[in-house]
Amino acid sequence: MKSLFLIKTILILALTQFSFMTNAQITNSHTLVKISTEYGDMTVKLYNETPLHRDNFIKLVEQGFYNDLLFHRVINGFMIQGGDPQSKNAPKGKQLGSGDVGYTIPAEFVYPQYYHKKGALAAARQGDQMNPKKASSGCQFYIVQGNKIGDAELQQTEQQAKHKAKQTLFYALADQHKENIKQLRINKDTAGLEKLQTELIAQVEKELATQSFTLPETLKNDYKTLGGTPFLDNEYTVFGEVIDNLELIDKIAVSKTLSGDRPEKDIKMTLTILQKGNY
User: Fold this and answer.
1) Which residue from 57, 60, 35, 36 is spatially nearest to 47, judged by alpha carbons?
2) How does residue 201 score in pLDDT terms, banded at 50, 70 and 90?
3) How many C-beta neighbours within 10 Å does residue 195 have?
4) What is the DSSP pairing of strand 40-46 with strand 32-37?
5) How far apart are CA 113 and CA 115, in angstroms?
6) Distance CA 149, CA 238 (A)
7) pTM over 0.90
8) Rounded to whole angstroms, how far apart are CA atoms 35 and 51?
9) CA-to-CA distance for 248 and 143, rounded, in angstroms?
């Protein structure tokens, strides 16, 4: 009996140790960054599936780039934004938001795995007209506050995703026929253009017929319970999330603002690497 009890004890200890090591390995696989303000601290986890944004953010944090910069743009019910190098020691009333580090980062959309729920860390960028590939700012970021989303709006989001997918595929197919389209226009062949358009639309419908645009339950639940800004999904790169003290976002978001959504009272930040991920 003693021998049997000893074996059971060893097995329990072994399983417990294995479980502990597994959890530790999971935790250690991500880089954690602390964002400190006078209102408190919050920790963000950087996603490994967005390595370009992750590594760039780590580099800037380690350089001390973000220290004493401001959350220079705050919109209650939407997001808080920072990372403009021109915000350091910026005089009162100065318009901020155009500062950068001289480079951009290619978009890394990992949707629907990562999305704009409350606490999402995402990269700011220039608008589509100047930036059709949706490349991210090399330094400016925002943290989502957003609002809770109802079922009707989520259904609309699904429809918009389907429409966007059709539109994107149509333009991609049209680009493959650009020389033909150019010639048809030169010849003012309206019938030919309409025929080609009908063929491309039919091809789009066929290719997307088996694709589901139903949002994952986890995503829908987060948007309904935490809130967020789903209309930004697949438009701006989400590369991390706040994992504690989400209330700090609300404290900053309610700040009284001046022109350009700059808080009347400067909100400085300090960023520190808490843990370097193993990846």
Assistant:
1) 57
2) very high
3) 12
4) antiparallel
5) 7
6) 19
7) no
8) 20
9) 11
Residues 274 and 32: beta-carbon distance below 8 Å: yes
The Cα-based distances of 87 to 18, 91, 93 in angstroms read 48, 8, 11
Distance CA 228, CA 117 (A): 4
Q: CB of 107 within 8 A of CB of 90?
A: no
Q: Does domain 30-148+226-275 have CATH number 3.40.630.30?
A: no
Q: Is 116 helix (H, G, I), strand (E, B) or coil?
A: coil
- The H or E element containing residue 105 is strand 104-105
* Amino acid at the residue 29: S
Cα 13 from Cα 3, distance rounded (Å): 15
Q: What are the domain boundaries of the chain? A: 30-148+226-275, 152-208
pLDDT band at residue 14 under the 50/70/90 scheme: very low
